[in-house]
Design brief:
By secondary structure, the protein is an alpha/beta fold. Helices cover about 30% and strands about 15% of the residues. It is built from 11 helices and 11 strands. It has a 6-stranded parallel beta sheet, sandwiched between helices. The chain has a 5-stranded parallel beta sheet with strand order 2-1-3-4-5. The longest helix is centred in the last third of the chain and has 21 residues. It is elongated, with a radius of gyration of 25 Å.
């Protein structure tokens, strides 16, 4: 029989999944995703600038992101994309509606970082409440030798015991912060959503502002919470609280915060997040970076080694599961 007479079915070759990591450098050295056992193509980018995601995802089956924004334009440029793995809990950088329209599965990681973020909250809080940064600098400047005695009282030191901590957001992280606070002898309350009646176990948002000695933010960034802490909110802070934000930077209105620090409406500010990261040249927060009652850290509250390992383990498991149950794309599925 000639080749022309052969009627055997033609089997299209299978293309291995293309897995693209867009901002791998957001994970610490030595923390890496487990690569799947099935044949695959792996592309790792330490960083992806705005506008580069579309090209890098052109033939991707799976995208792994932390903070890179995936909008409709980027998704339109990735016709083979079937799975987005987010190396975080927050997904405000992903257009979830556009993913749903395209049948793209999105997986994030929840519950990995309650301990590490809560510890960072108290690192900031204790440093501010006891003026650790100012005292350290004064020792470096020779003040201790000059004092002529075993101690000096240039900066106030205040205990946490007996203070009221108001949590704005009562999820897993807020709960972890609350448990640590109770061990310090603090009174812990949870604020209701702004403008809503307080459900059982919560107090009105305005009451939290007026009565808290410490405010710690743990709510998601939504249209309702963007700019939640504005000039009006700061004006209600009767007890000059310490404000800690390890959630999302845009929860706080930057110019209003700078004004509040200048007016003494807050006694301390600990920020691990800003509205735009990394900090930009025109960020209003720059005006208070050197203030003795302000500490800004570069979004590292989440970055405990154990927490990061939990993230990559969860994402690796999700990737393995996805590849087991989904057929691989075939050769005639060409990118647009």
């Amino acid at each position: 029989m000639s080749l022309a007479d052969d009627t055997s079915p033609v089997i299209a070759p299978v293309i291995p999944p293309v897995i693209v990591v867009l901002d791998g450098a957001t994970l610490a050295p030595g923390i890496a995703l487990r690569r799947p056992a099935v044949p695959h193509v792996w592309r790792n980018f330490d960083r992806t600038a705005t506008g580069e995601a579309a090209e890098r995802l052109r033939d991707a089956t799976v995208a792994v992101v932390n903070k890179v924004r995936l909008d409709r334009a980027a998704l339109d440029a990735a016709p083979r994309l079937r799975l987005v793995l987010v190396a975080a809990t927050g997904m405000d950088n992903i257009d979830l509606a556009a993913c749903a329209e395209r049948g793209i599965v999105v997986r994030n990681v929840v519950g990995y970082g309650a301990a590490t973020v809560a510890e960072h909250v108290f690192a900031l809080l204790l440093a501010l409440r006891r003026n650790l940064i100012a005292y350290r600098q004064s020792v470096l400047d020779g003040r201790w030798e000059e004092s002529g005695q075993f101690c000096y009282h240039d900066f106030p030191v205040r205990e946490l015991q007996g203070s009221r901590l108001a949590l704005v957001g009562g999820g897993a992280i807020g709960g972890a912060v609350g448990r640590i606070a109770e061990a310090f002898g603090m009174e812990v309350v949870v604020a209701a959503r702004k403008g809503q009646a307080a459900a059982e176990g919560r107090i009105p948002f305005e009451e939290a502002l007026a009565t808290a000695d410490v405010l710690s933010l743990h709510c998601p960034l939504t249209p309702e919470t963007r700019g939640l802490f504005d000039a009006r909110a700061f004006a209600r802070m009767e007890r000059r609280p310490i404000l800690i934000n390890t959630a999302r930077g845009a929860l706080i209105d930057g110019p209003a915060l700078v004004a509040a620090v200048g007016r003494g409406q807050v006694s301390g500010v600990g920020l691990d997040v800003l509205a735009v990261e990394p900090i930009t040249a025109d960020d209003p927060v720059r005006a208070i970076l050197g203030h003795p009652s302000v500490i800004v850290t570069p979004h590292v509250a989440w970055a405990g080694r154990i927490a990061q390992q939990r993230i990559v383990d969860a994402l690796s498991d999700a990737l393995d599961e996805f590849l087991k149950v989904h057929a691989l794309p075939v050769a005639d599925s060409q990118p647009r």
